[in-house]
């Protein structure tokens, strides 16, 4: 008695199914489901084994390289270093060494214990280097594709370094070399920098933010560190430009030394190259404050810079070191 309705209901379901399959009922539509596109993953292998230490993204490589440097992971560092590898100092050039030699120098000479390396973001390296493209500093065959600046370099953490990265044929990235900037030039640990340009005598430089610029007269500029007291009680630099009267840098320095006469322990040493010129640094000259002086002749113009106080016992000595580094690292001729 109950089987007949059941039969009708079953028949109705079968009929609807046949109509749907035959396309006669337009009220049922197929829904297209879009799956998310898979994220591209680069899988690198070495002898058939996945290698997690191969990096192709420059931002990721910066991060993992700094992490390995800070932790002293020499094994990982050596796997990322090119062979040969180059090292050097800003304005003193680069030289090629083996990766093993570079690693030995890295922790014996370049980095101190408990180093606090950090990426200097938004550093305008081209401006700091007087318009030179940092990628053009290594030779063309070095294959450098990236350059970035880090702070906290040096045994005392006061230096900076430009790290160079090269992309390999397999698209992975390798650490190609470093260039140390003694004392730094980005102002990252000093709260920033400010630019000064002297159009009359054709030079520009950067100095720490907050330092005062005083144009004493047409030929002399005073750069004075923040604080109280006169120059010497706080760090300062005096930049004086005058005619060289056909003298070379060496002739100028010898004349200055001769004026003092005997009895002074005066030392003369080369400073870092400034745009192809070799300045000389003179220490031990008498003056109101212990000082160091830098001389360089360009054309027939003598650029004479005096930095005070040059005594570790003086309160302004750390400021003097900072301003000396900034001026010598970023001094450029503009005409």
Explained architecture:
This protein is α+β, with helices and mostly antiparallel strands and 335 residues long. The chain has two domains: 52-181, Nuclear Transport Factor 2, Chain: A (Roll); 193-333, Mog1/PsbP, alpha/beta/alpha sandwich (Protein Transport Mog1p, Chain A, 3-Layer(aba) Sandwich). It is built from seven helices and 18 strands. The strands form four sheets. The chain has a seven-stranded antiparallel beta sheet. It has a six-stranded mixed beta sheet with strand order 4-3-8-7-6-5. Strand 3 (81-89) and strand 4 (93-97) form a beta hairpin. The protein is elongated, with a radius of gyration of 33 Å. Residues 1-50 have low confidence and may be disordered.
Task: Give the secondary structure arrangement, pairings included.
Elements: H1 3-22, E1 45-46, E2 49-50, H2 58-71, H3 74-80, E3 81-89, E4 93-97, H4 99-110, E5 118-119, H5 125-128, E6 144-153, E7 159-167, E8 173-181, E9 193-198, E10 203-208, E11 212-215, E12 220-224, E13 236-243, H6 249-260, E14 267-270, E15 280-283, E16 292-298, E17 301-308, H7 317-330, E18 332-333
